[in-house]
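A quick aside before the break. I want you to see a complete sequence-to-structure record at least once, exactly as it would be stored in a machine-readable document. Don't worry about memorizing anything.
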Amino acid sequence: MKYAITGSTGHFGLTAVENLVKEVGADNVVALARNEEKAKKLLPAGVEIRPGSYEDADELTASLKGIDRLLFVSSQPGGKVARLDQHRNVITAAQNAGVKFIAYTSFPHADQSDAPLAQDHKETEKIIAATGIDHAFLRNNWYVENEMSVIDAGAQGDAFVYSAAEGRAGWALERFYAEAAAKVVTLDAPKDVYEFAGASHTYADLADAVKAATGKIFTVNSITDAEYHQGLQDSGLDNATADLVTGFQTLIRDGNLDENTSDLPDVLGHALPSFTDSVKEVLAKKAN
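That is the input. The structure line, written in tokens, reads:
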């Protein structure tokens, strides 16, 4: 059985490769990478590296020849080729190459969500389903690492500011999502959909976790989106980036990431660390 992972040099992809090697051995893992030289420096010894640009369907088809199971890590938006077109290239290549199973990293409740961030994922899921290829949609919630700016502010004793009000998110460390993805792609009978998430928390809970992790005392300010957006611009972000980051707050406030599922610990086979311990880990990683 041959397994492949796209986007293998990103944080998620690299962690997934490392975990997949533990599951099936390096000889059975193929890593697809846009930058093969970078991949050679980062990836575990024994992993075969093949070209993996999401923008070249023919190249992807050649790289996926002989692959039985594919972990398809979704691309980042904002590239010169539209994200959905990139995804369509990967799916077309997988179909043409005879891939038998696709595990795709998606968005929480992508089939039902009206959130702007969900739309490319919703369409990608539809395209995968239409191929008839066996699949599993890995609907990842929010990473603790996504909150490094506010976590770090609290750790420095500065104000902890958010505009998501009482909105909740299923924060978990990125490495657990990647580990779970690597496990799913090896399962004999995976589910069609996994709603991966940690326990659901508010930003007030996150502030408490930062205080517990660091012993720091700091103010916690729940403000409006307009005030949050202005603060981002005052800190040096351009208007478009401030819009994007404020949109994450709106996403959480509107309940798009509020989750109650045990899919992530179930697949991992162990409980997730506490919120405080997760915050400690990201701060320790930043310090190193």
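Two observations worth writing down. Residues 83-97 form the longest helix (15 residues). The chain has a mean pLDDT of 96. We'll return to this after the break.
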